[in-house]
Structure formats: C-alpha cells, structure tokens
Amino acid sequence: MAFHHDSSDLVRNAGTRMPAEWEPHEATWIAWPHYRADWPGKFAAIPWVFGEVVRHLHRHERVRVLVENVRLEQRARHLLSQAGVDLAAVEFHRVATNRSWLRDTGPNFVWRGGSGPGEMGILDWQFNGWARYSNWRRDDVVPAAIARLLGLKCRQPKMEPGGRRIVLEGGSFDVNGRGTLVTTEECLLSPIQARNPGVSRPEMEEIFRHYLGVAKVIWLGRGIAGDDTHGHVDDIARFVNPTTLVVSVESNRRDANYEALRENRRRLAEATDQDGRPLRVVDLPLPRPLFLRGQRLPASYANFYIANRTVLVPTFNDPNDRLALSRLSRLFPERSVVGIHSVDLAWGFGTLHCLTLQQPLHGSPGGRPARWP
After folding, report:
1. Is the pTM of this model over 0.90?
2. Where are the alpha helices (DSSP H) in 181-257?
3. What is the pLDDT of residue 10?
C-alpha cells in the first residue's frame, strides 16, 4: 500500500500531531438532532439532552452547531434559551447532515509542526455509515464544510493504487497527544462491517503514523455488546492524560461483556507508550445492562467528553453512576465532572462522546485547560 499525497500536502510523516482531547479547545462542534429514526419513540427528549450538553459547555468554550435549515436553527435557539444558554457563546452553521454523531462524521484537527503552535489543518477521512447504514452521503462532506467555514486546509487521506479514500471514524481510536493510539481489532481489522477491506494491521499502523503522528498503536480486541459500530474504542478505553487510561470492566461473569473486557484489560496492563513505558490503567465499571424493546444498548461511562473546564459523563440511573463519577473526578482534578442523563440518548446507540467534536485552540502548545471567555 502507498499513500496518495503531493508536495503541498498538509500532513507529512515528520511533525504531524493530533492533539489529545484534554488539550485547550477553541470550540466544541455538535450537529443538532433531526433524524428521528435514530431514537424511535423517544426523539422528543433528545434535543433537551443536547441542550444540557450545550448548557455545560458554553461556559468554558464556544459551541458551534450544525443545523439543517432556518427552521431547525430557530427551534434550537428557542430550546437553548429555555435551557439557560447564553446564545452569544453559540454559533449556528447551515450544514446538512444525515445524523448527529459528529465524533464519527466530523474531521480530525491536526497540527503540522510537532507540538504546536504551528499550522492547523483538517483530515477528511471517508465516512460510509459505519459500513452498516445507507444514509451517509451528507455526513461524508461535513469535514470539508467545516474546513471551509474555518478557512483551514483540508486533505482526504488516500491509498494507492487507485487513490481510494481511507475510511476512519473518530470514535474508533483515541490518542494521548504524544504518539500513542488505542483502537480495536474488531472495528478496524474485522471482515464484518469492514471499513477498509484488505488493509492489514501493519498498513493501518502506517496510516496512523503518516496522518496522525502516531508512533505506537495499542490494539484491543472487541468492543461492548450492543454497539452497532462493531467495536468503537470510545466505549471501552480512553486516555485521561498522556500516561493513564481508563478501561471499561464487567464484574458479572455471566454478562456478554465479561470475557472481552477482561482480555482488553489484560492487553492494556501489558502495553507501553510511545517511549516504551508502562501505562497506568484505571478500571471503570459498566452500568447494569440497559435494554429497550429487547435491544441491548451500548451504555458505557467511557463515552465521556473532555472539555476545557469540565468532563461530561453519561449516566444511566444506575448504582455505578456514583462510582464512575467519583473515579473520573479523581482523574480530572482541574475539571468539574458532570453527569448527563443518557438513557434516552443511548437508544440511538451513542452518547456524549459520540455527539461532540473538539476543535483545538489555534496557537496553543497544549497541556492545561483554556479559560472561557
């Protein structure tokens, strides 16, 4: 496999870096919900969950909202005002989407020039509906639209021969901002819901190195039961700082997640970072199995979102809510850790990390949270 690029390509082997989520943000992007089929019978509650997310975020960073049309923008403005949001901290942009899972459909922001400050650009991976759904073509052009709105260079990672675009979703990997990435074999190497058929493990690692500046890839096995993405890592393992990850664990031996999560925990315990150093691994419980209409939902506390001064954590009216919030609070001492009720949201097979997308603060070398305003 070879990579398609030219002499003016934004992203080159040397000096490319994707910032970690905890590094300072200029903004968080979301796509206002409108696709009712993602939450059959429960859609009326979903915009209020998005409103709660914006209410917490807008105190610390700008929130940029994609809306289908004027009518949807008006409804969003009205709801956010009712929720106590200062609309001066919110921007609306007319960009059509199929769905609202912007983590997977939006761009990756990368730095050219090492740790920054440097030149920021956008990677526009192909999105194909998680190799599962047919309504994805509007979502596939979202990164290019955001690049135009921000005036940033945008590149589509490709492979040769043929210049085929590389398919990758933001929820399928997580980075520590220093050169280590965690992902799953189930999502990126399985022939089921195959994103890039025929692409091998070494080739995927080269893609990560070339475009994201990754020196070390940690491969976990499977994701959690109920996950329609077939193994996204943001439900099972997340970096919380350059040397520490949380990992989802299941204590019930009879649960469908028990063996898979036990194996993931073992792999992380044996893993090292980009410098060959062991990583600290902190267990994060799962809530009790969550079902709706006989369908198991991918309910996980690991689907949290790290913003400038807060961490938003999905909660599920479960006894483990308190334990998860407490554990994450100790891991984020400079941020407030806030639970967002996500039982209704999970009916769409995603929660808080899935719907949010961070835009790094331009010109910031990273490290400490930014203050807003």
Report:
1. yes
2. 185-188, 201-212
3. 38
N- to C-terminal Cα separation, the chain:
46
From edge to edge, which strands make up the β-sheet containing 173-175? 173-175, 180-184, 216-220
The answer, yes or no, to whether residue 371 has pLDDT greater than 60, is no
pLDDT in tens, 167-219: 999 999 999 999 999 999 999 999 999 999 999 999 999 999 999 999 999 99
Asked, as a colleague might, if the bond just before 117 is cis with ω within 30 of 0, I would say yes
Q: Packing angle between helix 70-82 and helix 46-57, nearest 10 degrees?
A: 70
Distance CA 31, CA 39 (A): 15
Give the model's pLDDT for residue 24.
Answer: 97
What's the average model confidence in pLDDT over 136-149?
98
Structural contact between residues 297 and 291, judged by C-beta atoms closer than 8 angstroms:
yes
Structure tokens at 284: 């994060």
What pLDDT, on a 0 to 100 scale, did the predictor assign at position 12? 40
Distance CA 286, CA 269 (A): 19
- Domains, the chain, ordered by start: 8-360 (3.75.10.10)
Calpha distance 26→28 (Å, rounded): 7
Contact present, 59 and 338 (Cβ < 8 Å) = no
| Catalytic (active-site) positions | 354
Residue identified by tokens 């996950």 is 227
In this predicted model, what pLDDT tens digit does every residue of 289-331 receive, in sequence order?
999 999 999 999 999 999 999 999 999 999 999 999 999 999 9
Could you give the CA distance from residue 98 to residue 35 in angstroms, rounded to a whole number?
7
Give the helix/strand (H/E) hosting 75.
helix 70-82
The whole-chain average pLDDT of the chain stands at 93
User: Are 97 and 66 a contacting pair, CB within 8 Å?
Assistant: yes
Cα–Cα distances in angstroms (integers) from residue 260 to residues 88, 148, 235, 294, 304, in the given order: 45, 41, 13, 22, 21
CB 332 within 8 A of CB 318: no
